[in-house]
Amino acid sequence: MPVLFHHDLAVAVLGSGSRGNCTYIGDGQHGLLVDCGLSTRQVTRRMEAIGLGGAPIDAVLVTHEHTDHVGGVRVLAKSVHKRIGQPIPVFMSAGTQRALHPRLLPERVDNVSAGRPFRVGDWDVEPFTVPHDTVDPVGYVVDLGPLRVGVFTDLGCVTRLVQEKLLSVDIAVLEFNHDLEMLVEGPYPWPIKQRIRSRHGHLSNEQAEDLLTTCARAGRLKDVILGHLSEENNSPEKALLAASRAVCRAGRKDIGVHVARQAEAIDPVRCQVPMEARPGRPASVATARVPSQAPLLEAEAEQEVLFES
Ligand SMILES: [Zn+2]
Ligand SMILES: [Zn+2]
Fold first, then answer.
1. What's the mean per-residue pLDDT of the chain?
2. Pair 285, 275: CB distance under 8 Å
């Protein structure tokens, strides 16, 4: 009897916040990282800690040049190259590439343009413009056929496009950066507070709550992972409360709400991918085990990550 479903898609936020962002999306056969602002050692350890040790990394998608998103990419890509014998593509906009410090530039860069989908293995990836104070920042939706996963962080405001993309996904990493009151009354210098609050800064709990309410009500969302929480100006409890209000207000208590952490990976959101919906993929893939791969530690000594948000 053919296997029709398999618990094979995992979406795991390995770390999120201004000290490093990294999200793994994989199905046991293919996998990619969205951003890599963590050291290779941390990526390896955190993947192992949540049962994804040795899971494949075929590519990295970079959203923008802030080092909390790109600081670990070069060394990570070099480690994977050593392990699999060929360089992996690191996707980023030409503007992001230009703005990147040469020391952080990975060996193989493939340029992407917002609005122009591209392929990574069997998957379609849609880069889209986001409002953030960098040269040419993008968010990504990864389309696995029956399932769509999107990363929506580092947003100064909610644009029509961001909302449209969030409406189209099943699993989202969504920025809940700060509690406005904590930010205003907190210790940051005024110009930094202004930058965070600006239309090219970061999304507050309140803004994210409104967006989530709209998208939970009208969209196909099944799981939301709250990301890029400020350690100074937010708390997991406040972000969770705001997101819970949103899904209740939308009448969608069935949506899974998860809070990403800065210092450790959270358990992956796992989904069933209907096998018959993936052309060219044999049903036996459903029972294949993730091959064990050597850890990614070789180039670790070269790692030095500078952090910006
Ligand atoms: Zn950031
Ligand atoms: Zn940023």
1. 89
2. yes
Q: Dihedrals φ, ψ of 269, to 5°?
A: -80, 125
Task: Report yes or no on 309 lying in a domain.
Answer: no
Partners of 178 in the β-ladder: 204
For ligand 1, the distance from its centroid to the CA atom of residue 233, given in whole angstroms, is: 14
CATH number of the domain to which 261 belongs? 3.60.15.10
Distance CA 68, CA 70 (A): 6
pLDDT band at 86 (very low <50, low <70, confident <90, very high): very high
Amino acid found at 61: L
Q: From ligand 2's centre to the CA of 65, what distance in Å?
A: 7
| Distance in Å, CA 68 to ligand 2 centroid | 7
State the amino acid at position 56 in one-letter form: P
Whether 238 maps to a domain, the answer reads yes
Ligand nearest, relative to CA of residue 151: 1
Burial degree of 85 (CB within 10 A; 0-12, 13-18, 19+): exposed
Domain that holds residue 157: 9-269
Residue 14 inside a domain? The answer is yes
pLDDT at residue 275 greater than cutoff 70? no
Question: From ligand 2's centre to the CA of 127, what distance in Å?
Answer: 16
Ligand nearest to the CA of 135: 2
Output 299 or 177, whichever has higher pLDDT: 177
* Residue located via tokens 């030095």: 304
Give 175 Cα–ligand 1 centroid separation in angstroms: 10
Instruction: Give me the number of domains the chain comprises.
Output: 1
**pLDDT single digits (tens) 257-268:** 999 999 999 999
pLDDT at 1: 38
CA of 202 to the centre of ligand 1 (A): 8
Q: Which residues, other chains included, contact 39 with Cβ-Cβ below 8 Å and sequence gap of 6+?
A: 72, 75, 300, 303, 305
**Which residues place a Cβ less than 5 A from the ion ligand 1?**
68, 154, 309
Residue 225 lies inside a defined structural domain of this protein: yes
